[in-house]
Amino acid sequence: MKVTIRVDVTMDYGETESFEICQLERPYRELDPARIGLSLAEGKDVLHWLQRIVVAAQAEEVCLLRRFCDRCHRFLDLKDRRIRKVDTVFGTVRFRSARVISCACVPPFHFEGPYGPMSEYVPERATPELLALQAKLSARTPYRQVVQTLREFLPVSDTLNHVTVRNRALRAAARIDGDELTASDDARPDARWTLAIDGGFVRGRRNSECSSFEVLTGRLTAKGHPPRAFASVRRELPDAVDRLAQLVRSITNSEHPKLSVITDGANGLQTIADQLPFTPKSVLDWFHISMRVRYLEQIAKGLRATSEPENAAKHKLTARIGKLRWCFWHGNAAKAASRMREILTICRSVVPQTPQAADSLAQLGYRVRELVAYVKANGGSTINYGKLYREGEPISTAMAESAVNQILNKRMCKRQQMRWSPRGAQLLAQVRCAVINGDLDERLEMIRQRPKPLSLEVAVFLDKFRRASESLPQGF
Ligand SMILES: [Zn+2]
Known about the structure:
Blueprint: E1 2-10, E2 16-25, H1 40-65, E3 78-88, E4 91-101, E5 114-115, H2 118-121, H3 128-138, H4 143-153, H5 162-178, E6 192-203, E7 212-222, E8 225-233, H6 237-252, E9 258-263, H7 269-275, E10 281-284, H8 286-301, H9 308-329, H10 333-349, H11 355-377, H12 385-390, H13 398-412, H14 422-437, H15 440-449, H16 456-470
Parallel strand pairs: 6-9, 9-10
Antiparallel strand pairs: 1-2, 3-4, 4-5, 6-7, 7-8
The chain binds zinc ion (ZN).
C-alpha cells in the first residue's frame, strides 16, 4: 500500500494550490506490528511539513492583501522580501515576509516607508501557543527535561535548548507577574472568604546575598468558589502585602470582603494579616494548637508515678489537659489560660520521688509555658473552632501547606538540586500558581490582546502631530 498526503490550500481570494507532503510506503510483504499506522517520527514529520505549508501560505496571503491601500486602492510597491523564522509547536518554520512601501495617502502624508505586514501577526520569534506550552511545562519539570519532553513528542528544532526554554518561561511569567488580575464577576457578595497563608524556604543562588529565602504561599477560598493559589517572595514584604491585598480584592470583587486569615502563628505570619488593608478575622491554625496539647497529653501519660501524691497529680494533670483541649476547641481563651495556670501550679507543687518524674514534670512545665507564649503571641486568634467546623468552614492551614507542597516543593525543593534567585523563584512561582489555578493560557491570551501602551516618544510625536493637523486651515 502507498499513502500520499496532499494538502490543498485555498486563499481568501479564491486561488487554490496543492502541495504534496509525503508518501508513505507499507508493502504487504514487509508488514509487521511496528509498521501499522503512522509512527511518531512520521507523524512529527507530517506535522512539521504541514506547518511549513500553512505558515508560508498565510505569509503569502497577508502580504498580497495588504499591498492594496485601504484609502486609494492603489497596488503598493514592494521594498524587498526577507526570510523570517518563527518557532511554533510543530517546529521552526521559515517564511518569506515581504516589506511593502506604505502609500503616500496614509498619515503621515508624503512619507513612503517600508513595513512588514507579517510583523503584526508574528511579533515574536515564538508563537503564543508555544510560549504558553513551554511556560506550563517549565512550571512542572526542570528546563532540560522540558526540552527532552518536547523533543520526544513534537518536531521542535534541533537548536532548542534549556536556556531558550528558561528565557521564554520567565518572559511569560514576567507578563503574568506584571499584570493586575481583573475583578471576577462570579464572586458572591455575601461569601465568607478564608485566606490560608504559609511559608516555604527556597535555596538561594551561590552568588546571591542570601543562602535561602522564604516564599509565602497559600490559598484563598470560599464555599462554592474554587480555591485560588498564590505565591510571593517574602523579602519584598510591602510588595507582598500589596499583591495579596490586590488578589483578595480582585477575587472577592469587593473592597471590604468578609475575610478570615488562617496562619500557623509562626515566623510572624500574623503581621502580614495585620498589614492587609481590610479588617480580617485572624484565626490560629487548629492543627498547631491541637499538636501542642497532644505533647502535653503524651508527657502526662508517660509520667511514672511511684508514690500516692505523684499518682494523684498525674490524674489531675490528665484531666486538666483534656479540659484544656475542650477550652481551645470551643474558643474559651480565658478558661484555657486558667487551665494552663492550674497545670503549671500542679507541676510546681508536686515533689517528685524519682529523677524520671522530675524530668517529666519539668518538661510538662516547659511545654505549657511555651503554649502560653504561643497563644499570647497570637493574641485573639484562637476562635470557636467547633462552631466553625460545624459550619463547614476551614479551621486549619492544611490547604496552605498543600499549596507549599504544590508550588514550591515540586519544583524548587532541595531534591531538585537547583538554586534560585529571588526574582527567578518569584516568576516561576507565578507560572506554577497559574497552572494550578488552571488559567495560564487564559491570562496570557488576555495580556496579548490588550493594546500595548505607546512609548513616551511615540506618544509625544503623535500629540504634536495631532496639534499641527488641527492648526491647518479648513479644507487643506
Ligand atoms: Zn493610498
